[in-house]
Amino acid sequence: MSEPADSHSRLAREAMKTPLLEREQEYDLARxxxxxxxxxxxxxxxxxxxxLAIAIARRFRNYGLxxxxxxxxxxxxxxxxxxxxETSHEVRFSTYASWWIRAAIQDxxxxxxxxxxxxxxxxxxxxxxxxxxxxxxxxxSGEAGMPPPREEMHAIIARNLGVNPVEVARMDAxxxxxxxxxxxxLVSDDEPGSERMDQLVATDPLPDEQVSTEIDGxxxxxxLQRALRRLNEREIRIIEARRLNEDSETLExxxxxxxxxxxxxxxxxxxxxxxxxxALTQGPDVPRGAFSA
Length: 293
What we know:
The structure is a single chain. By secondary structure, the chain is mainly alpha-helical. The protein has three domains: about 5-110, Up-down Bundle (Four Helix Bundle (Hemerythrin (Met), subunit A)), CATH 1.20.120; about 120-175; about 205-280, Orthogonal Bundle (Arc Repressor Mutant, subunit A), CATH 1.10.10. Helix content is about 65%, strand content about 0%. Helix 2 (about 25-35) packs antiparallel against helix 3 (about 40-50). It is elongated, with a radius of gyration of 36 Å.
């Protein structure tokens, strides 16, 4: 038997040996802790209810997580309950602590059951922890020993839990497929020793292609900027408004803004484009002043 299992067994035996508390004893210990921060009282209160934490933790043992960790999370829930318990509510501490223990363990299961984080809303939590049980009950209730169709089961579960049937289908698929490591070996005669990662298809360009694209793009930007310097101020304004901006302006709108006709705008744009074509054709090393405005 492993050391964690031995540790858990000892903790369970010690918890069962600890006597239960009367209501007055619970209230007295709770008051000593909340009012005077008496750590001895806190220890006695928590220790007397560890059997409750262990019992609740055992309900979650089918999620494949270490029992010792589940009990530890239940212990954290107990401490949280002790910090918040108020004797004025006339409720037994075990009743109050059960909610905090369950909440702490459920949060731990959601965080650690899978490397893919699930939803943390109340609806998602209820779906995660009730889906299997409700699905099994619906499968047993099918007519002639046949379970209802999966879509019908999803709709019933969604209606009972107040969630979308699509969310039920996604959670059902997630619970039925375990996490797979990309480094897990593939059983293949064609590629012995290969891993799942080797089968992934990369749609992005290769690193050398990315670098080449960035370098070429930067070179083209500098080339265009040098060519634009061959234009006068009005030509640049028209080229930017008509060719370089995401929302191109019409000839009429641009002419009204510049105080000229739309035909004149077209002529200036045509002349500017010809200047740019010549500059870009001759390459990036065109001497400044080669073209007049």
